[in-house]
Each structure stands twice: as structure tokens, then as C-alpha cells.
Amino acid sequence: MAAQFKLKRQGVRKMLQMPGMQAEMLRRADAIADVAVSLSPVDQNSSDPGHYKASWETDSTNRGGRRRDRAVGYVRNTAYYARWVEYGTERVPAHHVLLRAAHLGGAD
User: What pLDDT, in 10s, does the model give residues 52-78?
Assistant: First the structure.
């Protein structure tokens, strides 16, 4: 006799909102942020060298996803020029720090 399994959506929803799931999402966000810090460029000629590198933050909530019903982790850089470092401008090439960090740090 083969084993049977019946999926209950309410049970999956509860699992995705558990504190342990939220803690795991925060752990993964921290791993990505650690890689982002190591990849962050530092402009020695600026008035505040290392500001971009020191501006990485992580957060986690269990109100994420399209339906606001699951744990998610966030990684963000609070420097006002972070989007220009990530995507570049006509004068500055794109560094794609967060993209590369998510690729490398999200592998574990």
C-alpha cells in the first residue's frame, strides 16, 4: 500500500507564518547582507568613504508575499545614492552589488 498525503492550504499558510520561518528568512537576509558588505565599493575620494558599505540593513516580517500571508526577509541599503551604485548612471558603471550578493549569499 502506497503512502497518501493530503495537502491542507490552511496548514501551509500557518507554516509559512511560523516564527521559525521568519527567523530563517532573517538568517538568509543576513547572509545576503554580509556578502553585499564585502562586495560594496568604497570611494576614497568622497567626503564620507565607507558610508554605502555601512548602510546595509536587514529585516523580516510574516506579512510578506502577494497575499501578505508568509514570512519574508528584506535586504536594503539606506544610502540615498544606493540605486545609482546598483544600476549605474551615464557616468558611473553599474556595480549590481545586491544582485550579486543575492546570487552568492542565497546559495546556502
Answer: 999 999 999 988 888 888 999 999 999
Per-residue pLDDT at 74 = 95
How far apart, in whole angstroms, are the C-alpha atoms of residue 44 and residue 39? Answer: 15
Residue spans per domain, the chain: 12-40+48-105
Is pLDDT of 108 > 70? Answer: no
**Strands (DSSP E) found in the chain:** 56-64, 70-77
Determine the Cα–Cα distance for residues 72 and 17; give it in Å rounded to an integer: 9
DSSP string covering 33-97, please? HHHHHHH----TTSSSTTHHHHTEEEEEEEEETTTT-EEEEEEEE-STTHHHHHH--SSS----H
Distance CA 100, CA 98 (A): 5
Coil, helix or strand at residue 78: coil
